[in-house]
Here is the input.
Amino acid sequence: AQSVTQPDIHITVSEGASLELRCNYSYGATPYLFWYVQSPGQGLQLLLKYFSGDTLVQGIKGFEAEFKRSQSSFNLRKPSVHWSDAAEYFCAGLNTGTASKLTFGTGTRLQVTL
Amino acid sequence: DGGITQSPKYLFRKEGQNVTLSCEQNLNHDAMYWYRQDPGQGLRLIYYSQIVNDFQKGDIAEGYSVSREKKESFPLTVTSAQKNPTAFYLCASSIRLALGEQFFGPGTRLTVL
Here is the structure.
């Protein structure tokens, strides 16, 4: 079955520190991959997406993600976290070639300490 | 500005009542989706529609109904058959089904009293 796993439920980092949020996927073929961010009580905003090509993807707000086929991972990174980055982050995958649904991970809540 | 609107932002319902959540998009997208979000469970797909007058059940369709009479509108009705309707509901759209990213509305929080 297709799945997306975010192993970390909650992460706390200090402002200015680097960040890496983990995402693993399980699909028969390479899926489309996405990272979304959600502030409390709000909708989801797309940070970045990977369809094909360059495995390092740049997104908004200084985020990037690297697709690693050998590890079935699509981890989200930011070199220096700002207090405003505190939110919940969702990784999602979409199977290519079929009319399938977007599968979300369970999310990672990021707390930023000052 | 193009986008997705959901109304109302907060909704309260008594047990046994049906309630309809609104979702409108002006992005000219063909596909629209409804998700339910509960703490610690991510997003679960309720219904989706790839085109006007067509919709399909998602993973948790029981107790919900939808219609797609217009391209820009995809209302969700939470019926009294839904056993645990208190949740955060998110509407989304994409250019085509399973093509490109999904854009999300701001959500509606439904509370059953």
Q: What stands out?
A: The interface with chain B takes residues 9, 34, 36, 41-46, 49, 90, 94-95, 98-102, 104-107 of chain A (CB under 8 Å). Chain A has a mean pLDDT of 92. The radius of gyration of chain A is 14 Å.
